[in-house]
Design goal:
The chain contains 12 helices and 2 strands, in the order ααββαααααααααα. It has one domain. It is globular and about 60 Å long. The protein is 76% helix and 2% strand. Helix 3 runs antiparallel to helix 11, helix 7 runs parallel beside helix 12 and helix 11 runs antiparallel to helix 12. 33% of the residues are buried. It is an all-alpha fold.
Length: 265
């Protein structure tokens, strides 16, 4: 409950900061809506030329895009800005002040700011999923919805783990701008169903990002489950990968902090 109260306080303070610059806040929201509109136009054009792409029809992919947008919205709202600023805390030595707080360092450093301007992406994603499911005639059965949310939370946790590992490298590299480019690579991989990498020429991508660094599973497996396209191997792989990378990212984060050279040293 203590951490929940802190999270509510972080959210309130962040919202007050955003509303201090209302025009900038509204412009950021407008950009997110326009970006979604551009994506929808692009994919609408593709499906106007073909009824199916790698086994996904237009409304199935609309649901998938909604799941991706929801996951990305959560990551960008709660974590991305904090992780990007981590390297600046290392460079300036201000990380010292955070490490002195009587609170879990990972929680404080990754949750301290909430970007409310990206929160509408979550609701836009939920809207896209609802439209896609209704057009497909899929009923929102409680059992199906519950396990879909569980799998989507696993995908969300997996994405957070990747981001935390990249952030932790900032202790040694100090400037992690190039590492954030790797994060955008991960988000681009998550944006497309893993089935598009089935051809033999895509085998390296399928193996590396489907097994060893399973970014392809984060959105694909939850969406496939809800649409009735999943197999138990994908669900099992997502479950195992999520547990492993949550442990690995937390261990690596505290390992990096032990090697942090503070401003006073």
């Amino acid at each position: 409950m203590r951490y929940l109260r802190l999270l509510v306080s972080f959210a309130r303070i962040s919202l007050m900061g955003e509303l201090s610059f209302r025009v900038n806040f509204l412009l950021k929201i407008l950009v997110e809506v326009l970006w979604l509109g551009i994506l929808l136009i692009f994919y609408k054009t593709i499906f106007s030329k073909s009824s199916s792409v790698s086994g996904w029809d237009e409304y199935q992919y609309l649901f998938f895009l909604g799941a991706y947008y929801t996951l990305e919205g959560f990551v960008e709202t709660f974590f991305l800005e904090n992780c990007v600023e981590f390297s600046e805390l290392v460079r300036s030595g201000n990380l010292d002040f955070f490490l002195l707080k009587p609170i879990d360092e990972q929680f404080l450093l990754t949750f301290r700011k909430i970007d409310w301007s990206t929160a509408p992406k979550i609701f836009l994603g939920l809207g896209l999923m609802s439209i896609g499911a209704m057009d497909l005639g899929i009923t929102f059965e409680p059992f199906r919805v519950f396990w879909f949310l569980v799998l989507l939370f696993m995908g969300f946790s997996l994405a957070y783990s990747f981001l935390l590992v990249l952030t932790s490298l900032g202790v040694w590299l100090v400037r992690n701008q190039s590492l954030m480019e790797i994060w955008w690579l991960f988000t681009n991989l998550m944006r497309y169903p893993r089935s598009i990498y089935q051809p033999s020429w895509a085998l390296p991508i399928r193996v590396v990002f489907g097994v060893f660094i399973p970014a392809l599973l984060a959105v694909s497996v939850p969406a496939e489950y809800f649409l009735g396209k999943s197999d138990w191997s994908g669900i099992a792989l997502l479950s195992i990968s999520t547990g492993f990378f949550i442990w690995l990212s937390r261990w690596f984060f505290f390992y990096s902090l032990r090697h942090y050279q503070s401003a006073s040293s």
